[in-house]
Amino acid sequence: MTYPCSVCYADATLACSGCKYQRYCSAECQKYDWKTHKKGCKMQQILNKFNDEHNAKPRGRPPTSCCTGCNVKFSEDDPCEDECPTCGYVACESCIADTSNGTCYCAGSNFGRNYCEMEPRWYHMDGNGKSYNGDRHPLDDYPEEVYESDPRACNNCGKVTKLFKKDYRRPTAY
C-alpha cells in the first residue's frame, strides 16, 4: 500500500522517523513541513508510546456470566458454548457461528486450538485484531506443491513438520 506525501501528494516512500505516521516523498518535503508537523509529531509519539504500553499489558480475564462477543447473559436457554482455557474468552452459540465475535484474545490460537494446525481463514486474528500470519501445517492433506521442501520447527507451536510455503499461508491463496 502506498501513501501520499503530506505536502505534495506524490507517492510517499519515507515516513517521519519520530512519529512513524506522517509520510513524505522526499527529504525536501519533510523539511518544508517540519514547522507545521512538529507539534503533531510530539503528540503522535506520546500516543504511540501509550498504545505500545497498552498493547503490551496482558488483558484481564472477561467475566464468565455473559458472552464476551455480544454481552448476552448466559442462561439455561442460552448457555456458554465455548471458553478459552488461556485467555478466558467465553462465547455463546451465536458468536461461535459468527466468525468475528467467535475469535478469542489469544495470538496464535482460538479457544486452545492452534491456528497453525487449521486451514487458513480470514477471521484468524492475533488477539489485537490483526490477521494471523504465522506458519501453517493443517492436519488435512494438501498437494505437495503448497509445502516447503524441508521440515522445520513451526514458529507458533514448535512442532517440526513440513510447513506451508509463505504464498499459501494466507486465506486468499485458495
UniProtKB/TrEMBL annotation:
Q: What is this protein called?
A: MYND-type domain-containing protein
Q: Which domain of life is it from?
A: Eukaryota
Q: Tell me where in this chain the MYND-type domain is found.
A: 5-41
Organism per entry: Polyporus arcularius HHB13444
Keywords (A to Z) from UniProt: Metal-binding, Zinc, Zinc-finger
Q: What Gene Ontology terms describe what this protein does at the molecular function level?
A: zinc ion binding
